[in-house]
Write a structure and sequence with these properties.
Length: 196
C-alpha cells in the first residue's frame, strides 16, 4: 500500500471531465440517429401539395398532373355533363359515394368542390391501371353516355364524377384527392380548403 496522499480535487475534476466528454459523445451519436427518423427531403416532396393552373382549361378538356407519384385527372365538365350525373344513379355501384373514396366535402353528386371541375386519381380501383378518357365516344361502352372513363386492362367503366358502373371488376369509385381552389384559376392538390 502506498502512503501517497489522495488528491480529491483532481479526482473530482477527472470524473467531471470524463462525464462531460461521455455526454458529448452520447449527444453526438443520438442527434444523427434521431434525425434519421425524420422523412427525407425526397419523401417530403413526394407528398407535397401540387399547384395546377386551370385558368385555360376548356370545357371537356382533360389535363393530367402528378401527385405522390400518381396521375391526377382534372376535367372541366360542361353544364350538360353536370346535369346528367344524377340520371346515372341506377347504373352505378356507389352513386351516393358512400365508400370513403373522397374527402367529406366532396361527398356529393359531382364529387368535387366545384361542380364543373372533376379531380380524381387516374388509377383504376381494380388493379391500378390508368383509365382512358373518352370524350364524345363513351357510348361504345355505356349506352347513352357521351363522356366517361374506360379501363382498358379489365373493362371497368367510370362516369364523369369518377363513379364506377355496376357489373365491372373495379369495386369502388375513383379516389378523389384532397383539393382546394386558392384562386379561380388555381387548383391545389393535396390540401383541403382552409389548410393552405
Amino acid at each position: 500500500m502506498s502512503n501517497t496522499p489522495v488528491n480529491n480535487g483532481r479526482r473530482r475534476f477527472l470524473t467531471a471531465a470524463t462525464s462531460v466528454v461521455g455526454g458529448v459523445g452520447v449527444v453526438g451519436v443520438a442527434v444523427p440517429f434521431i434525425g434519421s427518423w425524420n422523412p427525407s427531403a425526397r419523401a417530403k416532396a413526394a407528398g407535397a401539395p401540387v399547384e395546377v393552373n386551370i385558368s385555360k382549361l376548356e370545357e371537356g378538356q382533360l389535363i393530367r398532373a402528378e401527385w405522390r407519384s400518381k396521375p391526377v385527372y382534372i376535367v372541366r365538365r360542361t353544364d350538360e355533363t353536370v346535369k346528367n350525373l344524377a340520371s346515372l344513379d341506377s347504373q352505378l355501384r356507389d352513386p351516393k359515394s358512400e365508400e370513403p373514396q373522397q374527402p367529406e366535402y366532396a361527398t356529393n353528386a359531382y364529387r368535387s368542390i366545384k361542380p364543373e371541375i372533376m379531380v380524381a386519381l387516374g388509377v383504376c380501383t381494380h388493379l391500378g391501371c390508368a383509365p382512358t378518357y373518352h370524350k364524345g365516344d363513351f357510348e361504345q361502352h355505356v349506352e347513352g353516355q357521351k363522356d366517361g372513363f374506360y379501363c382498358p386492362c379489365h373493362g371497368s367503366k367510370f362516369d364523369m364524377a369518377g363513379r364506377v358502373f355496376q357489373g365491372v371488376p373495379a369495386p369502388t369509385n375513383l379516389v378523389v384527392p384532397e383539393h382546394s381552389f386558392p384562386t379561380d384559376g388555381t387548383l391545389l392538390i393535396g390540401i383541403s380548403p382552409g389548410e393552405a
